[in-house]
Each structure stands twice: as C-alpha cells, then as structure tokens.
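Z., the sequence and structure:
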Amino acid sequence: MSNKCGPPSTDRRRFIGGTLAAAGAMTLAPGVILHAVAANDKATAGASGEHRWGMVIDTDRCADGCSACVDACNKEHGLEGQGRPATDAVWIRPVKLKDRQTGHVNRLVMMCQHCEHPPCVDVCPTNASFKRVDGVVLVDRHRCIGCRYCMMACPYKARSFVHEALSNQSVNAPRGKGCVESCTLCVHRIDAGVMRTACQDACEKEGHAAIVFGDLKDPKSEIRRVLKTHDSVQIRADLELNTGVRYLNL
C-alpha cells in the first residue's frame, strides 16, 4: 500500500495537469478567468525556447551598504509601501560570505537562481511551481495551496510566503495570501520586450553596474560576452542544477 502522506507520484501530477488542461478555461469570478496549462506544457505568452534568461552578478562591484537593487525590486513588484505595512517577502537579499582562513568577505545578492532543474518544481504537488520554456521559474498563485514544500526544497532560501491579505498591489506582480512567491526576473518586462530588470537598472543608476541580465543562449549578448571572458561560479554547483544566475569574483 502506498504512503498517502508521501510526495505525490508522477502519475498523480499527470492526472492533475491533464484534468486542468481538459477543462480549458475555468471562470473563477465574473471577469476573472484562469486558463489552465497542462503539466507538460509550461509555455506562456511571451516565452520562447529560443531564449534562456539569466543574470551575472559581479561581487567585486556589489557595494557594501547599498540596497538599491532591493529597493527597486520592492517598488517594481509592490512588496512594500503604497500605504500598507511591509511584509516579510524577500525576493532579493544581500548576503555576506567570509572566508574562515583569510577573513576575506564577499558581498553578493541572492535571489531565485532560475535553475534548469529546479527542486521547487519537482516537489510541488499541484504544478504551481513551474519553469517556462525560456528558463524563468515562476509560481502560479491560482494553483498554489500554500504547502511550502518548494520553500523547503530550495537550497537558496529564495522563496517567501504571503501571510496576510494584500491591497494596493502592483499590476506587475499580482500576489495572494497563502501563496509562495520569489524573483521572477521581471518577467512582465521580458514579455513586454524590455530586456532589463529593475535591479539591474537601479544598480547601474548607482554607478556600480554589478548586474548583467540577458539571454544565455544568444552568443552576441552582453551576458554571454561576460561569461566567455570571465570565470564565473554557481552557488551550490555540486547540486548540478545549472543555475541561470552566475557570480564573478567569488
């Protein structure tokens, strides 16, 4: 007999995804329609398998005490302010790493690493966590049941949980109480054809230029040039997740 408390089987995931796909579109409320997507078809409007969006962060340029990227992310996605209290949502956060042997300190910013093989997607029982064909890892808040398995599975502690009802939300990132969320690589900008993230813009405005965003599949892109001419590392490369976010001088 199978363990009912264990993780859902692959067959169950296929059943859930296939059932939703067969339903086509479900009306949640007047004027609100959820378009279901099969578990094996995560392509969405604006996504193309010809691209894989990613980011390179130069830790030498990441200035101590600077919070420009964090502030820009919060503003872009409505994570705080606008007349309501700040939540504990964190989509991008500064981290300091100290070498115990030399005492050298590296400063970097941590967010969802947009893995090619994301653990959060593997453990999600409802397919709320998914990876688009262009490599962006997202959460479908209509499917999220708040189990937080993905938060436990993420080795980067990159996901947050929405504990309270929200108001005055940003149209860039609709959010919901009881749902998990994380960095989206400003997917609303990608789908609008603006190939720059809010954190990148803010970092450049401060004069640091520590963040480069772009298409990892495009040999002519700036991010590919940087990766070709500089040694980069993945955080927890031993997990073989092939992250979309890489770091320089770490």
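Residues 27 and 196 are 34 Å apart (CA to CA). Residues 1-41 form one domain.

Let me know what you think.
H.
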